Automatic annotation (TrEMBL):
The keyword Repeat does not apply. This is LysR family transcriptional regulator. SUPFAM superfamilies: Periplasmic binding protein-like II, Winged helix' DNA-binding domain. Signal peptide: none annotated. It comes from the Bacteria. It comes from Photobacterium phosphoreum. Belongs to the LysR transcriptional regulatory family. InterPro entries: LysR-type_TF_proteobact-type, LysR_HTH_N, LysR_subst-bd, WH-like_DNA-bd_sf, WH_DNA-bd_sf. Residues 1-59 form the HTH lysR-type domain. Gene3D superfamilies: 3.40.190.290, Winged helix-like DNA-binding domain superfamily/Winged helix DNA-binding domain. GO terms for molecular function: DNA binding; DNA-binding transcription factor activity. Coiled coil: none annotated. Keywords: DNA-binding, Transcription, Transcription regulation.
Amino acid sequence: MDRFTSMLVFVQAVDLGSYSAVAEEQQMSPQMVGKHVRHLEQRLGAKLLNKSTRQQSLTQLGQQYYQRCKTVLAEVKAAEDEASRYLNAPRGLIKLASSITVGYILTPVIAKFMHDYHEIDIELVLTNRSVDLINEGFDAVIRLGVIENSRLIARKLISYKNIPCASPLYLQQHGIPNHPTDLNNHQCLHSHQSESKKMWRFHGSDGDFMVNLHSRLIIDNGQAQLLAAIQGLGITLQPYPMVAHALDTGKLIRVLDQYQASDIDIHIVYPVSQRLTPKFTAFLEYLLTTLPLTKMNPVVSPHPNQILNESN
């Protein structure tokens, strides 16, 4: 018989005062409780309990052995609790993939997370290609737009506003668009990745509009598009966190502020079959609670003409 179990049964027999109470606690028969106690007595070669039909009492050796057993059981429980805390503590490496634009938005949030969780490391791979979550060993992918895959779980983190803007130089040279259809006569920086990237959608009081884009410069990276816009090469449509600093410093000016460009959701995606480890659960909960508090939407901007006049 297992000696540790026998010690546990013996201590409970003393604490609870009867074999039947121990049997109910341990879900075993009273006869099995007696076998465990006798197993210890046979190993020791001496009686531990004096037992009659009405009462039981510890022998002198039983009293000493009882105290020792309680100490051993307490130490084992403490060791198990410590091991459980270690196993359940958030620690280890989280491997993430993200589009380059989303990575720009996420990096400050990840930095704050790592300050709070010193035992978690993060590998963030920034790429605009589609990645294979399982075969490439990623814990999760953070992406823009709608995710439709029955093998994946997609949790929405936040929606952001897309802001159309251009540099003062560009607007002075090419004029200010006042309506989405005016963009047909402008250089609109965009990506070659898909047809959807070559079309901007706007909503206003006079309806919905889709604009096919024209540009001499096509760039598949949001930050590079931002730099090109600052250099006066065209109008860019970017998430507000990407352009906030350039807008605040006057390097870019918001246009078409009477129209709302399509919002885009950011999702974190992971396999349905993935076990939620403590480290990943901590990261997921941090994103879900922290990102919605991040400043993602712009304040109302003055008309571009006013800004240009003030700068002259």
